Request: fold
Amino acid sequence: MRGTLVELWKKDASFSTNRGAGTVTFDVIKSKLSEECHISSDSLPVILPVAGTKNNQKANILSQNAEGTISLGKWLYSFLRVEKETHIQSDQPMAIGAPIYLKHNPKRKKIVLNLLVDGLCWRAIQDQDYALMPNTVEFFSKGIIFNQHYAASEYTYPSLVTIETGLYPYHHHILDDHFNTVLPERCVTMSEKMKALGYYCVNVMGSGYIYNGVMRGHDRVIIDPYELHTYAGVERIIRQMEAFDECDQFIFAHFMDTHPYFVGNFQIPLGAETKLDLDERVNGQNSVESTSVFLPCTRLYKEANRQGIRNTDRCLGALYSYLQAHYSEDEYIIQLYSDHGSTIYDRKARVLSDHQSSSAYMMRGAGIPQRGFVEELTSSADVYPSLGHLTGYSSQEIDGNLPAALGGKERDYVISSSIYPGQTLKFCIRTKEYECYVESKDVVEIDGTADLSGAEISIHSRNGGGESISDSIIQEKFLCILREETKTINNEGHFWPLLRSKRPKWFGSLC
Reply:
């Protein structure tokens, strides 16, 4: 049925405009089209993914232990266990995935699990004394919880790429999903690294970020633009672990319950909506549609977000219990992180505020010391080298840093940036004591550059009072960092006039 629907919709422009109708789940597997496939006796047993290209397609099986005909659904993958030399043939092309080898390697972990909890603001969790996520805090307190972790970007599209490559946005150049930019081959993704180590790599729940290359190391990607609920994701993870427990797995899952959205387009969690007074419901939403970065600080959005966090933690509790019941501590690695925070906790929204940039990062399992809460500064770029350290892949020429808690060196500062074409460039440099906020006067070009001449620069204390800092030594220290970090994106006023003239709404009189 899904194959038929895709045939009807694939040429309909409104289908992509509405993000694939919102609830359509796509199961994407790297495959080749062929009318036959032969599996030799080398490296058996394997699981072979096979899908038909028409409804109720017949495929003939000839093997030492099986002979007959099976039915294949259109674009619906069947996973066939092959233990003897086998030949599969059909009158129509089949979509045949790479064989999944069923073998453990003592150099690998049985399960490596990465959980992206979208928009989880760690500062908001701290403000509530961690009460919103009791299961998560209890589980990861036997590993490491990085309590001063900051996102490299203000929203998911570039931030996810930073996590997956260890590179800041101004080095990986994936900035805005309105421009079809593909991740350069020189940027090796986390999943590509894990695939090279021999893991079976599956994204069991993700949004649609496959066309830019950030998911290119995965063997299988199950995606949906928005229906990424934790309860469904946890069940998919457990089913995946059980189905392929004979091989070593790298599993990624992306959850969206904790992401705030404009209430005019999305339903808020039921537990929050039914508890709000009508006045709070009526006056709590902004009348003009906006992205999550610019949502107002109202009880409506805060309660919706908190309920989403509680829902997520409750569902994750089942996953933590399953891991502990079925695997020993040295058989798995689990990392949980977020891609950004939320401005709905700020009375005055600022794109790179502490609440918007403060995100979660925690880990537990093989090779991870039991440190509990750790106060060193970490960046979303650090997830990449941290997993490399724990699993054995190399991490060179990246912006990520191996945290001191894992045997590396503590960072002096973290970088958060907003490089969104058509808006001013924003930069925030944080040390443990201070933060330096920078905003350009000019807007960001399509190529991700901006003129930083005359940019507004302010430095404040992070001691809670937010006092303005005028010390010349501290100012020069931040300016040196700023010059170094922005040297590839500061165009110093050099730009292509023709490109500006094509976008008068962006550049106005500057054209």
